[in-house]
């Protein structure tokens, strides 16, 4: 309990630093956290993040490509990670104000794998110009019926299609393969401040769920999770200072069976997650 209070105080300091950076954002602009939060018809808020289904009628058909989509949400947000099955499945039923939109996610595929459901990873352009990457948990994505099907060959990216689900497509979204389409993007915006709640003890035994592992102070561990696009939970060992960030939730029944009971690790989750 004392440790948690100390933790919170350190987070407070960090929040102040972030505010100095983010203070320049124009709160009324569409592609900001505030803009996302004020457009509930086209957004979904979970774990503090706001995800916005965005399109712009001035975009020519079949643009942007996936590469172009990477910079649409910058600099106050990024292209989205499907943080949980529910997040993508919720946005699947939102209408981004155009007919039958095809919305880019930051999901791409390494086509050197022959199996269609292999090689998928999240690849997100950050405001710094570098990419954050993490292998996707393919079973945790609401694919459309029959997808991924490599329909046009060498399909190396993925979109969310309204009322269908996630489908694999070529990142160069040519009309010869897919017809003329109005494109959309899903943006991800992080709050400046968020809560991380204690959630029992243990750690995940599956390496595929681990985003990062470092030896750091408790407040640094929280900050690392907060600044990651993928982090839903973390385990911290106060004695060894081992910090493990995870892309899944301990209470999600799809993953809870993979927790190693280990009383030396405290588990924390992002507040307000839904799976
Ligand atoms: C669409 O894009 C134009 C040109 O970049 C921009 O001026 C306009 O504000 C955008 N519209 C919306 C609704 O974001
Ligand atoms: C794709 O996978 C192959 C085989 O595992 C690997 O050698 C290559 O580096 C990967 N490419 C990318 C861009 O990750």
From TrEMBL:
SUPFAM superfamilies: C-type lectin-like, Hairpin loop containing domain-like. Residues 187-272 form the Apple domain. Residues 1-28 form the signal peptide. The keyword Phosphoprotein does not apply. Keywords: Signal. This is Apple domain-containing protein. It comes from Plectus sambesii. The lineage of its organism: Eukaryota, Metazoa, Ecdysozoa, Nematoda, Chromadorea.
């Amino acid at each position: 309990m004392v440790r948690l209070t100390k933790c919170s105080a350190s987070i407070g300091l960090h929040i102040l630093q972030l505010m100095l950076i983010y203070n320049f954002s124009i709160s009324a602009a569409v592609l900001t956290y505030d803009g996302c939060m004020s457009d509930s018809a086209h957004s979904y808020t979970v774990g503090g993040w706001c995800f916005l289904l965005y399109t712009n009628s001035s975009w020519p058909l079949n643009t942007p490509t996936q590469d172009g989509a990477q910079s649409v949400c910058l600099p106050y947000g990024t292209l989205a990670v499907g943080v949980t099955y529910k997040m993508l499945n919720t946005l699947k039923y939102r209408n981004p104000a155009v007919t039958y939109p095809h919305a880019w996610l930051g999901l791409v595929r390494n086509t050197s794998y022959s199996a269609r459901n292999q090689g998928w990873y999240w690849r997100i352009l950050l405001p710094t110009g570098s990419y954050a990457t993490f292998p996707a948990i393919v079973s945790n994505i609401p694919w459309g019926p029959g997808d991924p099907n490599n329909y046009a060959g060498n399909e190396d990216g993925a979109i969310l299609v309204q009322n269908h689900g996630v489908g694999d497509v070529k990142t160069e979204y040519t009309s010869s393969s897919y017809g003329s389409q109005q494109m959309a993007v899903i943006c991800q915006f992080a709050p400046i401040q968020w809560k991380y709640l204690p959630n029992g003890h243990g750690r995940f035994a599956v390496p595929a769920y681990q985003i990062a592992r470092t030896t750091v102070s408790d407040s640094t561990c929280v900050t690392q999770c907060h600044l990651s696009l993928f982090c839903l939970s973390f385990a911290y060992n106060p004695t060894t200072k081992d910090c493990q960030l995870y892309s899944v939730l301990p209470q999600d029944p799809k993953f809870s069976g993979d927790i190693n009971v280990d009383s030396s690790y405290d588990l924390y989750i992002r507040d307000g997650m839904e799976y």
